């Protein structure tokens, strides 16, 4: 983004000593480099910084905000599980930005503890983090953000949760030291003050909500307050701010799916932000919001049409377990008899009967599992979700 004036403070840098662990296995040349000092970022405090955006950036952000609110209202009255469908798709897209890719079927399997994909298990953990972000959105403070991170990583990396990081981290450049990193976030002793300042910025009411969420996200990623999971937690923070600011009330609009469409532009915007260009990240988030609404509407149409087609081919009371199972399949397109019985609150006999009806109607097909634990899938929903994911990543290099 072009700026005629420098409205936003750029990060500075400071020299820090590097302590070798003594266990490094690398060349003599690299070992000699490890004895040197390194440069760590010193992000500015932004709690009270005036937010001045280029007029066209601000106007586009306002238009995107209106589209987000309109889609949230429209989709909020669609089929009952659509909110949970979008929550899962957003979690999958946010994970894919971190190169954690899993198909819709594997994610559905992970949701019932039957996944063969480790990435799918991590995506489901991200669903928990997103859900925590929405539950905690009214009071965004240290405990809330640490709670989001805990929901994300407590199962897979319990040693990393519960507090801000206590070590230097870096992005790119190898695992041995930060000397050749693409970006070195601030030293960990600066994190508490920087996060307190960020919460002050988040509490402001004089910044448009979408722009405020974009800036807060960029500052969060610059601080990098955790050893791992910063990207996914930082994108969950976006949703908590959109919910808190009233732009969304019903749904998790798939903004990460919009960012996934042009990930390089997203990463460049974060770099530009650190160089003092606040317009760049607002522009990237605005484009992501427009893309999210467009893709989300396509998914809403696909899901709604599928549900209507199913209903037209089944003769049963609308309050029967068969129709209730149809709604369950929209959000959980792979099921077992036990899962159906549990989710619908019915006996396994009734659950099995409902599954049989949907197999006869062509809604469900068996998809593996042994005799004692058979699984069925709603292939049309899996295809719709995979179509959403493919549209999200289309255009990636």
UniProtKB/TrEMBL annotation:
Residues the record marks as active site: 224
Keywords, alphabetical: ATP-binding, Nucleotide-binding
Gene Ontology MF terms in the entry: ATP binding
Domain (Fido) ranges: 140-287
Keyword Electron transport assigned: no
Binding site for ATP: 228-235
Keyword RNA-binding part of the UniProt annotation: no
Record InterPro entries: Fido, Fido-like_dom_sf, Fido_containing, WH-like_DNA-bd_sf, WH_DNA-bd_sf
PROSITE patterns: FIDO (PS51459)
Protein name per UniProt: Fic family protein
Source species of the chain: Compostimonas suwonensis
